[in-house]
Specification:
Layout lengths: L4 H4 L6 E3 L6 E3 L26 H11 L4 H6 L2 H9 L5 H15 L2 H7 L6
Antiparallel strand pairs: 1-2
């Protein structure tokens, strides 16, 4: 029996794997020609590079009540909420919880969630 060509072919720079069937397709393809599934567009990243999990954890521990760790990871909306409610000490408790969550997560899990561990 002949092997499937898609399993032995190497992926080129302008190619990606289909999100559904795993076949190699062109990066700009909207629909996979093999399975017909529409491909998800690449997420828009507002970050110049992935944020460091340990830096976010240290900020959550030291300045969690001010929301500094949320501003660091690019979640400015939550950062402003932390600042608005700083007088209640709830952001400080949330900062300590997020400190533990950041340290217990792997780098891959942190990047996938980009710091949205609680909400």
């Amino acid at each position: 029996m002949a092997q499937d060509q898609t399993s032995t072919k190497q992926k080129a720079v302008d190619e990606v794997y289909c999100s559904s069937c795993g076949a190699i397709i062109k990066k700009e393809a909207e629909i996979c020609p093999h399975c017909g599934v529409r491909q998800k567009p690449a997420p828009i990243s507002y970050h110049s590079k992935p944020k460091n999990r340990k830096t976010a954890a240290v900020l959550a521990f030291l300045l969690g009540g001010t929301g500094a760790h949320r501003f660091y990871i690019g979640d400015t909306g939550s950062g402003f909420l932390y600042l608005c409610f700083i007088w209640t000490f709830i952001p400080m408790i949330l900062g300590l919880v997020e400190f533990v969550l950041y340290l217990s997560a792997t780098d891959e899990e942190f990047e996938a969630k980009q710091g949205h561990m609680l909400f």
